[in-house]
Amino acid sequence: MKILVTGGAGYVGSICVEHLLDSGIATVVVDNLSEGHRAAVDERAAFHCLDLRDREPLLALMQNEKPDAVIHFAANAYVAESMRDPSTYFRNNVSHGIHLLDAMVATGVRKIVFSSTCAVYGLPLKIPIEERSETRPINPYGESKLCFEKILRWYAEIHGIVPLILRYFNAAGASERRGEDHREEPHLIPRVLQVALGQRKSVEVCGDGYATSDGTAIRDYVHVRDLAAAHLAVLQREQPSLYNVGTGEGYSVLQVIETAREVTGCPIPHKLCPPRPGDPPRLVADVHKIRQELSWAPAHSRLSKIIESAWQWHRTHPAGYPEHF
Ligand SMILES: NC(=O)c1ccc[n+]([C@@H]2O[C@H](COP(=O)([O-])OP(=O)(O)OC[C@H]3O[C@@H](n4cnc5c(N)ncnc54)[C@H](O)[C@@H]3O)[C@@H](O)[C@H]2O)c1
Ligand SMILES: O=c1ccn([C@@H]2O[C@H](COP(=O)(O)OP(=O)(O)O[C@H]3O[C@H](CO)[C@@H](O)[C@H](O)[C@H]3O)[C@@H](O)[C@H]2O)c(=O)[nH]1
């Protein structure tokens, strides 16, 4: 089996590539390195520095490689940034994704695992959130992902594409060799650990006026290695499928900071700042469907374990990945 992985130099993609290769699956990575790092790509994978915007080289690559399936991670993925620059989000996450689908149709590749997000649910009326819940995104990032989900359904109906949609909740943690290293890191756990490393004076708590137990926003953090395993599991499916991938447990921003203090032994000062535009107060997955249908269960996703693995990676890679590789 051979899988083409877009965005395989990024955080989740690179760890998924490592997992695929460990499972004996040949892997071809496509990434424009806008956010990803060449050094994050497993040396056993073939690597092509290519932008999905460029249709012709993408089609040629698909014709040469003839993958059995595609896993599509490549996207812009920051909620707050999408509130400032929706154009980039719709162009990259929707239009450039269509180039990938067209190349699949042209070369007869049917299966695509798509990295969707709990951001499609917007402000859910019921927690935990089931897959059949209403989808009303409150930021352009979530809207762009929902839009691509809908496009996938039409490509399934018209072209026989098999979309395997995974709506991840918050990916976090690291493998032994790979971790989270974004150029302007917006995510909570790595930012908290930057404080523990002395790279940042304090961590900002974005809003404490939400209707949650301590007033700070709640997320469902899932270990990136568990997420990688979900990709392998869903590849067995032959029919269009949609699953939440989370743990069913939610933690507030303050709980994350407190757990990081316990794990690192560092004081990690925090200060209050205004809420981030586009942020829902609470997102927690109902994961019955993926547990039942794919026999998938999170094995590494206890919050302290997630933070321990991330801490281990950040301590050994304080400057992240080397830029020159
Ligand atoms: N990290 C999370 O918590 C989370 C949660 C839900 C969904 N997701 C989705 O999972 C996927 C991976 O997220 P991540 O956190 O690893 O992000 P990331 O930014 O680390 O990885 C995305 C990768 O895609 C590449 N890329 C972007 N546009 C491209 C293009 N046009 N052509 C080629 N490569 C391109 C980037 O260089 C980067 O390496 C994204 O689709 C994201 O929306 C992530
Ligand atoms: O320094 C920080 C960073 C974040 N937060 C808050 O922490 C929570 C989690 O933020 P973050 O780690 O940035 O994740 P999300 O904004 O929830 O977004 C991630 O998780 C989404 C699903 O929730 C994915 O779709 C996105 O791709 C991914 O970036 C949010 O309430 C933030 O406001 C802070 O309080 N301080």
UniProtKB/TrEMBL annotation:
Residues 3-246 form the NAD-dependent epimerase/dehydratase domain. Its cofactor is NAD(+). GO terms for molecular function: UDP-glucose 4-epimerase activity. It is an enzyme of class 5 (isomerase). Gene3D superfamilies: NAD(P)-binding Rossmann-like Domain, UDP-galactose 4-epimerase, domain 1. It catalyses: UDP-alpha-D-glucose = UDP-alpha-D-galactose. CDD domains: UDP_G4E_1_SDR_e (cd05247). The keyword Isomerase applies. GO terms for biological process: galactose catabolic process via UDP-galactose, Leloir pathway. It comes from the Bacteria. Pfam families: Epimerase (PF01370). InterPro entries: Epimerase_deHydtase, NAD(P)-bd_dom_sf, UDP_G4E. Keywords: Carbohydrate metabolism, Isomerase, NAD. Belongs to the NAD(P)-dependent epimerase/dehydratase family. Homodimer. This is UDP-glucose 4-epimerase. It comes from Methylacidimicrobium tartarophylax.
